[in-house]
């Protein structure tokens, strides 16, 4: 196997594929990165059994040559050192070759690295998915769908299904929902054409890693689903993740149909005020803050930490309708929710101090954040 | 105590003073930051017993008012939360007051923090130094003196004196020297006037923290020394450090008088080549690399890691004079030394493969780096 490649393109692909490689894997060959070279270009593969990533560097694109002097073949090299090696090579052109004993040589300028490789035959084959149940999304839209929901997945393995994001099609809308049973984040978007998609639950970690790799240079991404895998594919990227098994809980029951108090308020002001109120309460797990309605459109946000002190702040809402209210909640959950809403104004809908409350952008019904309040006596 | 202050100036001083405050101190009041207000302005103090820092915000400077509405007084507040509180306050003006029960109130905009403070009488008095043995240096020169030496101090407490930088005056030159007995870094500068200075050893940690605080807006810094303290003073900063006791070893004996091989070479090329050669050797403590002279002005740098692989690179020196050589050394020590030398070309002087070698800039006799090679068989 032999090829010459542009270091910049190699570096980018290496960094993408590294996100699927874990040094703590139970299958030794998965600490390696697979290199495959054909007349079409170079393909790098990494996997930790849950996530697998393939990144392709084509021979040329838009008139620029990336790969040349090709002798097809494949090998597996130790992933641990490869990113640093590629990053520190002296020149923009890199020559890589391996012989039949899997001795790998990496050359650039006057520097030469010799690494012991492994037989690519030992590297597991990734499943080839039938692309029947597949549809396309603009990449930036998928990134937003993930960004606005994945933070709300559970970090505990007590109920494994909650560590994933629930993805389903309902009424020609694509729904992403995540919850850890203390708060919920949901986003739906209309789909252009009739799409058949089984309801699936994708591990939060997979989506988080996917979002780090996807950039805006790719316009659309193709999503395919089988019984236990989901594949995200762009022109040069193939990102495969296992799905979580089991039934995702029915979450629409959690969402109150009527609210008793509606507050419209500047998103950033509420966020910064809750942030300040939580500063002294960092020690306790929930960093609870309290919200109290005052006269006019005034809202008081306060936080208290025995022996340290307390914080109190008055914020002016744009409007308040309905019953007066005093309610306590986790500052972290509120801040997570507000940070995910990139609109200037939010509408917070309360149903008393004991029931979940909703946070939505004022002008967008597609995004929904729900938080369960905390009881205080 | 009461005052109104500009948040930006308060933030800067808080960040400086925080560098002397440790949450792990054995004296509880030292987890606090002392605030003292007088008609001259505000003074913040922090200390961990080894290092003490006072930062002053004057009432006004260059026509800009920083502090007003002053009622003199003092209090100690918990340092743990103060930086975050100041950083997240909503407006550029901050009002701080404390009553006679040490209840502290911090107000900005509509936000109000209440903290429990402590009596400033309980805060230890910092020693007032006689400024007899003192001299001035340009601030940027002091920063360089520190930067080019402090990295070489010992990180082990086996020989505590080596954890400090040796500062002395000799032949009307100011010398800074640091060594961990494996490598040494030294810089000397001529002093303008006759300066009497006892030979002192300043903890490396103190100088590192000092360098983080000093910026180039201060032209000069005054340095005063007593039996067991050193004081660095600028217009608004007072930085006090204890000195290390004991006799610093005589290091000039280590420096070979004659060399057998002299290599002149581009600093960056040597640095990057050694960096690459050490990539595979990260596991072993010394990350040893080898240097071998070749024909002409060629030098080979190589590194080897059993089971992983090896690296080899040819570098062209600008000139090589003297005996042929094969030598091994720690890549980390070589890279530390080369990174501290901000000159394009260095002169490396070897005395065989078993004796220390020197690295100096080609055009500057003031800077000296010395490294003990590693034996290989």
UniProtKB/TrEMBL annotation, chains A, B:
Keyword Mitochondrion found: no
Which SUPFAM superfamilies does the record cross-reference, listed alphabetically?
A: DNA clamp
Q: Where is the DNA polymerase III beta sliding clamp central domain?
A: 136-250
Tell me the superkingdom of the source.
Bacteria
Keyword Endoplasmic reticulum carried by entry = no
Keywords annotated in UniProt = Cytoplasm, DNA replication, DNA-binding, DNA-directed DNA polymerase, Nucleotidyltransferase, Transferase
Cell location:
Cytoplasm
Q: Which Pfam families match?
A: DNA_pol3_beta (PF00712), DNA_pol3_beta_2 (PF02767), DNA_pol3_beta_3 (PF02768)
Domain named DNA polymerase III beta sliding clamp C-terminal: which ranges?
253-375
Which residues does the UniProt record annotate as the domain DNA polymerase III beta sliding clamp N-terminal? 1-127
Question: Which InterPro entries does the protein's record reference?
Answer: DNA_clamp_sf, DNA_polIII_beta, DNA_polIII_beta_C, DNA_polIII_beta_cen, DNA_polIII_beta_N
Annotated GO MF terms: DNA-directed DNA polymerase activity
Protein's job: Confers DNA tethering and processivity to DNA polymerases and other proteins. Acts as a clamp, forming a ring around DNA (a reaction catalyzed by the clamp-loading complex) which diffuses in an ATP-independent manner freely and bidirectionally along dsDNA. Initially characterized for its ability to contact the catalytic subunit of DNA polymerase III (Pol III), a complex, multichain enzyme responsible for most of the replicative synthesis in bacteria; Pol III exhibits 3'-5' exonuclease proofreading activity.
Q: Which family does it belong to?
A: Belongs to the beta sliding clamp family.
Q: How does it assemble?
A: Forms a ring-shaped head-to-tail homodimer around DNA.
Its recorded name reads Beta sliding clamp
Naturally occurring in which organism (per UniProt): Halobacillus amylolyticus
Record lineage: Bacteria, Bacillati, Bacillota, Bacilli, Bacillales
